[in-house]
Specification:
107 residues, alpha/beta, 4-stranded parallel sheet, 4 helices, 4 strands, 15% strand, flat
C-alpha cells in the first residue's frame, strides 16, 4: 500500500504505556486499522510499546504504511520487537523535534 502525494499521512501521538483502561487499547487498535483502511500512512512517535505501539501494530497488521519519528536517544531501547523491522524510523535529536516533524514525514 502506498500513500497518495495528496494524502501526506495522519500523525498520532499517544501513550507509550498501555495504561489500565482496556477501552484505550481497543481504541488504539481500531484507530490503527482505520488509518490503514484510509490508505494514508500512520506517522507516530516511533515506539512499539503501549498505545503508540498498539496503533502501529494494528495499522501494519491491516496492511498500512507506518513511519516512526523517534528521538535518537530512544532508538536502541525501542528497536527490540519484530515489528520494528517493518517500521522506518526517522531519528531526531529531541522529543520536541519529533513532535514537530511528525506531519511532514509522510510527504
Amino acid at each position: 500500500m502506498t500513500a497518495s502525494p495528496s494524502k501526506p499521512g495522519i500523525a498520532v501521538f499517544c501513550g507509550s504505556a498501555p495504561g489500565n483502561r482496556p477501552e484505550y487499547l481497543e481504541a488504539a487498535n481500531k484507530l490503527g486499522q482505520a488509518i490503514a483502511k484510509s490508505n494514508q500512512p500512520l506517522i507516530y512517535g516511533g515506539g512499539m510499546n503501549g498505545l503508540m505501539g498498539a496503533t502501529a501494530m494494528a495499522a501494519l497488521d491491516a496492511g498500512g504504511v507506518v513511519h516512526g519519528v523517534l528521538p535518537s536517544a530512544f532508538i536502541k531501547a525501542e528497536r527490540t520487537t519484530t515489528y520494528n523491522s517493518f517500521v522506518p524510523v526517522h531519528p531526531k535529536d529531541a522529543t520536541a523535534d519529533s513532535k514537530y516533524l511528525q506531519t511532514p514525514v509522510g510527504k
